[in-house]
Write a structure and sequence with these properties.
globular, 5-stranded parallel β-sheet, 40% helix, 8 helices, alpha/beta, Rossmann fold
Amino acid sequence: METRELEQIARQIRLRDVQAVYEAGAGHIGGEMSATDILTALFFRVLNIFPENPKNPERDRFVLSKGHVALALYVTLAKRGFIPEEEISTFLKPMSRLNGHPNCNKVPGVETNTGPLGHGLPVAVGMAKAAKLSGAAYRTFVLTGDGEMQEGSNWEAIMAGAQFGLDNLTLIIDHNRFQQGASLKDTNDLAPLRPRLEAFGWDVTEINGNAMAEVVPALEKRTARPHCIVAHTNKGHGISFMQDSGDWHHKVPNKDQYELAVKELSEAL
């Protein structure tokens, strides 16, 4: 798909995400909005995947390490044909398989269970290493939050990725500058991220993570070393009153806010 088509799909995913959060009365809407362009580019352009056969051994692997934005992944998977689109209305309801964090035993297209931050990247390193050992051609992509990068397990995984020469591994950091309760700079400020990753031997690309024209080529880039994309994004992207506010990490819009969000996202379609 070309850039304009991907942008349109990303807007549709954002709109359905907001509706589902409002209906469920829960969710992590701010980070879901910031990550949507990345998820869209991955699932509709970059990943070699098979919705009709989700466990095809030749598939590329994607790990959503920031598992609390599971709803954005569910909406993306539904739109891509992994699960029925009408199933999104069951999000967080009793007996639904669409829980607050993704479960690989229940949802097609989910590669591993995530939720506790700092787990996804180590798992992705294992997947990429397994491909090297077996001679498989698949690539592994993992999306983390910037606050999540404060976890020491990530830096151990980064060291391992460089040590093993995992040129089939791409880490995307959703650098929206906010985490639960505060901004990144007021907790444990890791910025600028690029020199830190480069010091560990990774190839690093910095982009506007909400600009599809920058997201796609960064994800498609092949390097001779593990690749990290520092994606500068906006918390709550696409909704004026949510943007760049830590308050919207897991806040639910009231009726007036919901109607305004729907109006803004619909006008962009």
